[in-house]
Amino acid sequence: MSEKKITSSELALKIRRDAIEMTHVSGGSHIACILSMADIIAVLYSDILKYDINNPEDSGRDRFILSKGHAGGGLYAALAEVGFFDVSELLTHCANGSRLSGHVSHKDVPGVEFSTGSLGHGACVASGKAMALKKAGSNARVYTVVGDGECDEGSIWETALFANHYRLNNLTLIIDHNKMQSLDYCENTIELGSLAAKFKCFGWDVIEVDGHNHAELKDAFLRPRTDKPRCIVAHTIKGKGVSFMENNILYHYRDPKDEFYDLAVAELEVEK
Ligand SMILES: Cc1ncc(C[n+]2csc(CCOP(=O)(O)OP(=O)(O)O)c2C)c(N)n1
Description:
Blueprint: H1 8-26, H2 31-48, E1 63-66, H3 72-82, H4 121-135, E2 142-147, H5 154-165, E3 171-177, H6 186-189, H7 195-201, E4 205-210, H8 214-222, E5 230-235, H9 258-271
Parallel strand pairs: 1-2, 2-3, 3-5, 4-5
The chain binds thiamine diphosphate.
């Protein structure tokens, strides 16, 4: 297979379009969670990560772990669109016997680093991988995307302590800060205060960006490293790109049915 060169804007649109299709066909959840992070994933896979679609296990590759694994459909879409596997397979998402499960799985799926879905785990594994790579003298980097609701998990703060203690400056943790979780706004569930201030306090190099602005995201990824781990607080809108899904908590779980599917597709067509 040959790598497909694609701009981050094209990839973001494809991820959104594929995810609408996948959740429509399967009746699967988490469409708003995918739309929220689509730009972050698109910039990573088009401009930042080092990977080889013909050698997914290449030891020099950058590692990406989607810690908010419930949005796995978005990662599968990105991997298929850059050439890790055939785009047509995306329509098996969540079907019996498919390797593309709802929460992201690395079992037999090229390009997926680690299975996630139990919130708080992926970031810990990412910090462990960053430490192992550093010890091995590797230049590879580790990136992980966490949700803001996921930051209610104590293990996220253990990761924050650990990565600072070991000065894991090869680790980048991106918070998809859409201010919502599954059933309500974050502030009504567990008040988080300023995530940027908290990570700064924990000793991280913190950059805040508009998580839908590709130039800002790219700059935050490429800015010269200090000796600290990097936290990018990406301010996002849950459901971004489909007006009636934006900031609509129903679309954490609801799939785009019938006329809602047509409307969503029509809105994304206008974006082309
Ligand atoms: C340990 C654990 N507890 C609960 C859940 C159920 N759950 C799935 S998604 C979600 C909300 C996550 O919110 P957030 O991290 O903000 O994700 P986003 O809104 O970006 O999708 C919850 C509680 C889970 N997957 N894992």
